What does this fold into?
Amino acid sequence: MTNSLTPEEQQILLETARKAIRQACQDEQVLPLNLEKYPLSLQEKGACFITLRKKGALRGCVGTIEAVQPLILDVRDRAVAAALQDYRFSPLTLPELNEVQIEISRLTPPTRLEYQTADDLVNKLQSGVDGVVLKYHSRRATFLPQVWEQLPTPEIFLNRLCLKMGLDESAWKQGELQVEIYQVEKFQEQD
It folds into this structure.
């Protein structure tokens, strides 16, 4: 990512995410943000994923691929969604919030990856660097670059991503899927 956020900007985003989650867990209205008081880099459109971990285990993860609103608003909205709306988990409770670590992944815009064969696709993917979006008709699924830590080979990575999309795990080998890649700037709260 070319324009990395400063440590101060990262801290603002982490504090914004935590405050929004706290308000939502207390059934308070998540307060609007005055964009003018934030650095310009946080006012620009941005896409992010918010990952919540409790004692190292995943507790929620929600995000978006396309930048449709200012980054600071996207962080706020995705943080609340990760805490309360990730269908894989019950809503986060206020007492749990103190045990949760917040990680933010700021995404670059996705770009289409042209490939000819399954082997060509495998060779073009950069393990640990590329986030991948697979598209097939109206279906779409993505894995962040961090997922390479659990699924270290391109074949396993693509198999699981196909399953996530609701297709047979070998669907990527047929050459009918559109593939996009992106990278992330990842930062998290300190322990």
Q: What stands out?
A: The chain has two domains: 7-107, 111-183.
